[in-house]
Amino acid sequence: MISSNLFLNNLEIQDNVLIVTQILTTMFLAILFIQSGIDKVIDKEGNLSWLKSHFSNSPLKNSVPFLLFTVTAIELLAGFGNLIGAFYILFMDNTAIAFLGALLSSISLIMLFFGQRIAKDYAGAQSLVSYFILTIVTLVLLS
User: Fold this and answer.
1) 15 or 99: whose pLDDT is higher?
2) Burial class for 11, CB neighbours closer than 10 Å (0-12, 13-18, 19+)
């Protein structure tokens, strides 16, 4: 009897660890992408100026305004998807919205990674790898 109770308690702890980890990773992604997206909206001209300079010698140089808009929209959708998803995990035991938010997060990071590689900013591309790993781990945790 005692060993079965310990087993059940261990299963409950594992379930709680999974839920807590899901919430923590989605909240991290929410903060990351909401802040990044809002920064791009608030300082649109500064970001646009920097990006035009950054991509001046790349095939993307004529598409910078469109690409900035696209990345900003995806980041904001990802951030708010993760934020809402964390609440759905917590209160409704549903990971679907968080999974979509994490998926959009990974798409956003792939877009940014592609841009950094095209611009030959290898250090900038490298700095995105840890975020991408977190998004993949989050997708696995939510599946």
Assistant:
1) 99
2) exposed
